[in-house]
Amino acid sequence: MSDRQITAGVQDLSREDLLEMLRRMWEIRIFENTVYDLLGQNVIKGASHLYAGQEAVAVGAIAALRPDDYITSTHRGHGHCHAHGDAFADTPEEKQDHLNKMMAELCGRATGYCRGRGGSMHIADVQKGNLGATGIVGGNIPVATGAALSVKMQGQDRAVLCFFGDGATNTGNFHESLNMAAAWRLPVIYIVENNLYGMSVPFEAVSSVVDVAARASAYDIPGVVVDGMDPLAVYEAVAAALERARRGEGPTLIECKTYRWYGHSRSDPRKYRSKEEEQAWRDRDPIIGFGRRLVEAGLATEEEVEAVETRAEQAVERATEFALASPQPDPSEVEEDVYLLSPFSPAAVEAERRLAARVRTDPSMKSQPYWEAIRDALAEEMDRDERVFVMGEDVGLYGGAYGATRGLYERYGGDRVKDTPISEALIGGSAVGAAMTGLRPVAEIMYVDFTPLAMDQIANQGAKNRYMFGGKTCVPMVIRTEGGAGRSIAAHHSQSLEALWTHFPGIYVVMPATPYDAKGLLKAAIRDDNPVMFIEHKMLYGLQGPVPDEDYVIPLGLADIKREGTEVSIITYSRMVHRALEAAEQLAAEGVSVEVVDLRSLKPLDMDTVAASVRKTGRVVGVTEAYKTGSFLTELFTRINEVAFDYLDAPMVRVSAADVPVPMAESLEDAAIPGVQAIIDGVRRVMRHA
User: Fold this and answer.
1) What is the H or E stretch that residue 12 is in?
2) Cα-to-chain-centroid distance, residue 509
3) pLDDT score of 403
4) Please, where in the chain does CATH 3.40.50.970 lie?
5) Which residues are registered as beta bridge partners of 673?
6) Annotated active-site residue in 105, 309, 424, 567
7) In CATH, what number does 560-687 get?
8) Tens digit of each residue's pLDDT (9 = 90 or more) over 293-334
9) 204 belongs to the catalytic site
10) What is the pLDDT of residue 7?
11) At a CB cut-off of 8 Å and minimum separation 6, what does 670 contact?
12) What is residue 1's predicted lDDT score, i.e. its pLDDT?
């Protein structure tokens, strides 16, 4: 085999490049074998899904990348991480440092890439373009698609490689992502590593097609099948796909036929595979075969090939020594980096207090509807920061389901106001990817009832990435949605699911009750560097209220006293604020002084304002439109017990929706949701202890 033959189609690779590819494959193989041993010794904890056997895919694909391109990876991602980190390290010392950090991360050490927080399945180096691995099968595909969207929107000559296994091709994430990437011609290369099994289930048992690549035809994009045991075949296919993507021609689906040496994890007995099958694939070892090809082509001697293996063994040995000598993370740091804190100064808080007072007392202040305040907040932030864009279902010409994006498409065009497919998981994941790569997306999911469809992307990727990746990234995205009952549209369009979202660390939850609050809180959310779930109430969009002309933000985590009182604190948020105020007015006629506390933000939660109100009144009625069982009131009451129990003169009372799916019939819907009378009755119950 001649030099020309081995490099046909890959003429840009030198002899040194080829030897480097061989070294990377050996380092991945030896690294994985070492990890296997350390797992057996219980030095590495948890689960590790080993990449041995598939080295040619990662090394061949990443060799075609530029340093400023991106990758996303999977639970079986050590090979991707190493090939990427090594390829773009400039010196031998940097390459060793990279390998050290990898092994340290798997060993759960403070010196690891993610400071021991991510481990095997969640390793990342975001600053260098590795946007991270995920333990959720297919979870990285929408993120990669969002990163490609970001690249295109910013006019960058970059591309994204998205690695995943054959099992992921049966997920909705796969199909939703390919559809949008194809429609929008995004610069993303989807690389399927078909190792024949999704854990233990053969691909042929769960797929009607022999080749995953055949599915590309459904989206009118190229589908390519390559030998995943040949790094040059992979390189050539990926290089061609990258060239196509950089020309603006959109995505490519590349299927690499490959095989994993080990089982799904170390505990896997591999009963679903025959020894004959395993041996047949081992006879096609990509590393041995590639080394032999280099020798036969006269590009390396047998001694040089052996020396490459020896170097790899030494590098992994040094990395192992480094990892085992590194300290465990300091337990005192366990709560660091969940959020990228941007605390408002006391002066900013005081300024908002003064502004809120003026809003309540200045009769000359302009009035506008809630929906318009939302629209204006979006427009002002889009004018202020070119990184801000709006995406979601029907947000363009239609103007959003309730008109909150009306006029934005005409003003900013389709580049910054993007109508997406009806694909909630994709919307959430694309927002994550775009946010991690330099943009500030405001993504609308039409109803909060639909947000569970994006649960993985928002809660597992967006909310957790900062912490999971060692505090080395941020995800500045806003998920706008609307909830609540009142329009007789029944159980799938009328829920209040805010408590669900408060449960996940790493994401804020905001629920404004007035046009003033809606505008100021949305502007603050867009400027915040953390993911924010911004929940509007469908029955508030037409509500009129005063809104200042000047630019202002309301600090997230700052509650508001909507009405002063001395005897009972009604603590609530969103639409229930208005019913609480009506109840307070009626109770005042009975001589009961009620204070109405509007939380505005459920996370962060302003316990200072809550506790001050409780200390003043000694009685608490919590009001929510959410189901009684598991509502946010449970958390609120627990927190009050922790900080102000001694000031309570009576047991706290909760007023909530009935534990029934929201019914359609108006009479039943009204009966299921707290009305003014229910709040009055709650206050009377707590007052019996006077």
Assistant:
1) none
2) 15
3) 92
4) 3-325, 346-546
5) none
6) 424
7) 3.40.50.920
8) 999 999 999 999 999 999 999 999 999 999 999 999 999 999
9) no
10) 52
11) none
12) 37
